[in-house]
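Hi R.,

As promised on Friday, here is the backbone we talked about, encoded as structure tokens. Could you run it through your design pipeline when you get a chance and send me back a sequence?
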């Protein structure tokens, strides 16, 4: 019964979030993430189709691990094909041995059980919801399939408009506007991983659901929480942050809920807790995994009842606030190990956002490094304005285990040892602890340089440019010549010289 209640709460939470959502890609992400959670699956996917042509227009697959789950696309294609043919939901407790498919079709796949349900709206099939588990995990059951069918029924209205789907695919995403908007909040970047993060942040800011930020230390989770608050309907109210890892265990309850005079030794007067201080606004709970289990129970109750009871008081006080929680550890794994309460996990896991590590968005490193350089140079009275190309390449190659925080620290150290009038920071100013790593980087680059003469490399480069122009112009030489601002005669001469011919 408890599990059923948690599932019901999860579905209601999802419906609440989707009702405020207009970004089609974000809807698909939220739905597939919620399917992962509800079915405790190793993968979940949503496949959208055009009801008229039955062709796939979009597929989103989410996994709990980074490995590719070999054969997943083959499984999905065949299962959906079977559903189209048989017009019914699908369940297999052992997909590899399932006699509905050719023998050995999935033999190398680690996937064991699979379920899938059609997403129907207005009498038409508009997509499919699928989930699966590895062999070593408990199999999906007929009860899970029944739940999947109800899940598909719930999400169908939010995925029903083919026009919305087509608009998503044909219109360019307003990335520049998004980047500029959040740059004002201190979030900088242009990489695909960062744009995806911004889209999730923007969607979270438009609704009032609880948000869970999961990402490594130093990835900027508090900055993200502040940005969500800044662009939300609660922006005029307080934003309060608490770091659970920085407060002694015996003081956490008093910090969150407050206390009355005489509640304990040293409580000389009444003190309002942070949850009450954030009333009407947003409370950011950083490193929520560090909360002791008894405190997790009390926080769960406060969220459930929307009220707090100060330490030493018998009177509860009503509160209205938004919770944004963050963790550098996987709450799902901690929950499985019995170190995080399941009911609190589901209360917080309403709008999950995965914050990428800096190494996953290395294209943003030059932009971030320049931003820190400008800020730190001004504060230290230096004239430094940039980094050498070789040093930037090195920075982009590093793992940055401390993420953005470590990069900022590196820039601060580099500026500190830079001469006052120097305009560029080069590799000669690297701290001693990074010089050996830089030498290894240079050796690695040397090994990977193409063993070709400059003449050969320039020839290859020219050939590539010509081919790209010709392909862009459907191999019309006159148009390609205009595109490259040259003559058609010279274009033909260079094509002959480089051996470029139109494919048959």
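Update: got your reply. Pasting your designed sequence below so it's all in one thread:
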């Amino acid at each position: 019964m408890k599990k059923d209640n948690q599932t019901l709460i999860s579905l209601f939470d999802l419906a609440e979030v989707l009702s405020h959502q207009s970004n089609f890609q974000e809807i698909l992400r939220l739905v597939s993430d919620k399917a992962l959670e509800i079915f405790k699956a190793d993968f979940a996917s949503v496949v959208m189709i055009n009801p008229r042509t039955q062709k796939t227009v979009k597929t989103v697959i989410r996994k709990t691990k980074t490995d590719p789950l070999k054969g997943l696309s083959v499984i999905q294609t065949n299962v959906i094909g079977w559903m189209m043919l048989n017009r019914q939901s699908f369940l297999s407790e052992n997909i590899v041995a399932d006699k509905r498919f050719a023998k050995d079709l999935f033999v190398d796949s680690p996937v064991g059980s699979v379920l899938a349900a059609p997403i129907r709206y207005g009498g038409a099939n508009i997509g499919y919801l699928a989930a699966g588990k590895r062999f070593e995990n408990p199999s999906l059951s007929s009860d899970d399939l029944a739940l999947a069918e109800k899940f598909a029924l719930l999400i169908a209205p939010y995925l029903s408009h083919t026009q919305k789907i087509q608009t998503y695919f044909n219109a360019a995403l307003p990335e520049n506007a998004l980047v500029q908007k959040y740059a004002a909040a201190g979030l900088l970047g242009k990489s695909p991983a960062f744009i995806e993060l911004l889209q999730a942040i923007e969607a979270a800011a438009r609704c009032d659901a609880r948000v869970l930020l999961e990402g490594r230390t130093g990835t900027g989770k508090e900055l993200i929480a502040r940005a969500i608050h800044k662009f939300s309907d609660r922006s005029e109210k307080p934003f309060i942050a608490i770091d659970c890892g920085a407060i002694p265990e015996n003081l956490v309850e008093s910090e969150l809920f407050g206390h009355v005079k005489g509640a304990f030794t040293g409580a000389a007067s009444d003190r309002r807790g942070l949850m009450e201080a954030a009333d009407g606004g947003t409370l950011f709970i950083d490193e929520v995994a560090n909360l002791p289990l008894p405190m997790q129970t009390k926080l769960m109750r406060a969220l459930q009842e929307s009220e707090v009871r100060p330490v030493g008081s018998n009177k509860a006080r009503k509160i209205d606030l938004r919770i944004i929680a963050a963790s550098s550890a996987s709450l799902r794994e901690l929950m499985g190990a019995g170190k995080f309460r399941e009911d609190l996990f589901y209360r917080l896991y309403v709008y999950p956002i995965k914050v990428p590590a800096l190494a996953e968005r290395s294209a943003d490193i030059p932009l971030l490094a320049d931003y820190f350089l400008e800020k730190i140079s001004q504060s230290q009275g230096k004239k430094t304005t940039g980094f050498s190309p070789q040093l930037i390449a090195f920075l982009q190659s590093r793992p940055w285990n401390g993420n953005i925080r470590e990069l900022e620290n590196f820039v601060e150290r580099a500026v500190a040892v830079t001469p006052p009038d120097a305009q560029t920071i080069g590799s000669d100013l690297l701290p001693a602890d990074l010089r050996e790593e830089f030498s290894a980087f240079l050796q690695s680059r040397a090994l990977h340089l193409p063993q070709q003469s400059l003449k050969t490399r320039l020839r290859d480069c020219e050939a590539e440019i010509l081919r790209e122009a010709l392909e862009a112009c459907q191999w019309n030489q006159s148009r390609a010549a205009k595109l490259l601002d040259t003559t058609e005669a010279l274009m033909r001469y260079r094509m002959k010289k480089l051996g470029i011919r139109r494919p048959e």
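One thing I noticed while checking it: The two ends are 66 Å apart (CA to CA).

Thanks again,
M.
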